[in-house]
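re: the backbone from monday

yeah here it is again, tokenized this time
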């Protein structure tokens, strides 16, 4: 493992990447003990504080764990799906909020990914997962439900559908789609949405899941995707009209 002293990236980032690449490449395995800070500093020809910062970066990504004591040190960690799930949500949220990703692109990807769960969910869903979706539909009918409560319920509903596929890789991939994209979509469309319409579509999804009807699940998800895109188009059009009206008023004064 080496770093390039001519690169602009700081040394701690380069060291963290070198170790991460070694883990991905299989040179370092789960529970392997990393060399000491002093040994790593000598290997990479940097100071110990630089090595320490690199190890902090790896620990923040759950790639290593530290143990104290005579047999302590830094060890290669086995990342759980729960940890990876959380990181996926954070990364997806940052990508959507910090980059120029259109609503249509995000919506298209989010529902296309969810539809990929339909054939497995139709076969594998449990009574508990179906009950969770029914419970969230009931919650969504409550007149006093706040926008924040609606968003949380919406995420729980779709998360239950994803989990019905009983495929940990799909669940991981969809973590960002459902738990990062869905709240952002709700933030954009909440002023224009019709809760009764969405509840009806959610009911169609749950009914199809109960009947183990893959095609109907996909059809209902497509209908929800189209409705969501139309909501966003209306919101953006209204904002543009409002901006144009304000600009016209300023021009007349």
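seq for it, each position gets an aa:
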């Amino acid at each position: 493992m080496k770093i390039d002293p001519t690169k602009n990236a700081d040394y701690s980032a380069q060291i963290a990447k070198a170790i991460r690449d070694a883990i991905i490449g299989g040179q370092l395995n789960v529970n392997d003990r990393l060399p000491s800070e002093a040994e790593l500093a000598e290997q990479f020809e940097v100071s110990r504080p630089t090595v320490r910062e690199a190890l902090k970066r790896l620990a923040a990504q759950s790639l290593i764990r530290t143990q104290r004591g005579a047999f302590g040190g830094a060890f290669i960690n086995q990342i759980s799906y729960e940890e990876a799930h959380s990181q996926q949500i954070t990364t997806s949220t940052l990508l959507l909020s910090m980059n120029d990703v259109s609503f249509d692109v995000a919506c298209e990807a989010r529902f296309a990914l969810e539809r990929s769960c339909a054939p497995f969910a139709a076969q594998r869903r449990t009574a508990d997962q179906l009950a969770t979706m029914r419970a969230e539909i009931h919650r969504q009918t409550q007149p006093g439900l706040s926008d924040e409560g609606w968003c949380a319920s919406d995420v729980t509903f779709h998360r239950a559908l994803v989990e019905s596929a009983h495929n940990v890789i799909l669940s991981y991939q969809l973590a960002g789609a459902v738990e990062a994209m869905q709240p952002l979509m709700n933030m954009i469309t909440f002023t224009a949405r019709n809760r009764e319409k969405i509840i009806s579509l959610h009911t169609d999804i749950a009914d199809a899941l109960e009947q183990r009807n893959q095609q109907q699940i996909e059809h209902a998800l497509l209908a929800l995707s189209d409705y969501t895109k139309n909501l966003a188009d209306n919101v953006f059009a209204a904002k543009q009209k409002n901006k144009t009206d304000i600009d016209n008023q300023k021009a007349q004064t």
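The chain has two domains: 11-76, 82-232. The mean pLDDT is 88.
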